[in-house]
Amino acid sequence: HELDGWVREGAAKLVGRYEVEGLLAGWDEALTAPAWEGPPTWCHCDLDLRNLLFRDGRPCGVLDWGWTGVGDPASDAAVAWKVLPTEARDAFWTALGSDDAEIARARGWTLMQCAGGLWYYTPENNPALYFEVERWLTEVLGSAPRRA
């Protein structure tokens, strides 16, 4: 995968601060999951709370189309960990018709963003995004990050 080296480089910078073993295990699972075999799909690729607009508690719009591309819709399914509460995820996967492979790839997409976001952003240069990415890692790994 073209992002493998980048994810591993980012994860190496997190050793001692976060659960890198869990991050890389999830990433490896995503790499070994069957690839998307459907037609290429338009994807936003960065759906999270910063890029979603809400009205009366319901999503009504999307911002920041800078990562938009054509590919695996699992990149947008990463919203499951980045936006949805834990108790809503099973219903989300069912409504989406996701299989285990898509869930693994979506998880990998989220972990890729965590590996990069937690070393690039800091509490000083972008505290809102830093702590949001930290929350994504907690959601994906199912436990609070281990900080040094």
| Major β-sheet profile | 2 strands, antiparallel
Count of DSSP helices? 7
Strand order of the largest sheet: 1-4
The tally of strands reads: 4
Q: What portion of the residues fall into strands of 2 or more residues?
A: 5-15%
What is the gyration radius calculated from CA atoms?
A: 15 Å
Helix content: 40-55%
Contiguous low-pLDDT stretches (5 residues minimum) are 144-148
Q: Structural class of the helix and strand makeup?
A: mainly alpha
Q: Please tell me the overall pLDDT.
A: 92
Query: What's the helix-strand series?
Result: HHEEEEHHHHH
Q: Note the gap between the termini.
A: 30 Å
- Morphology: globular
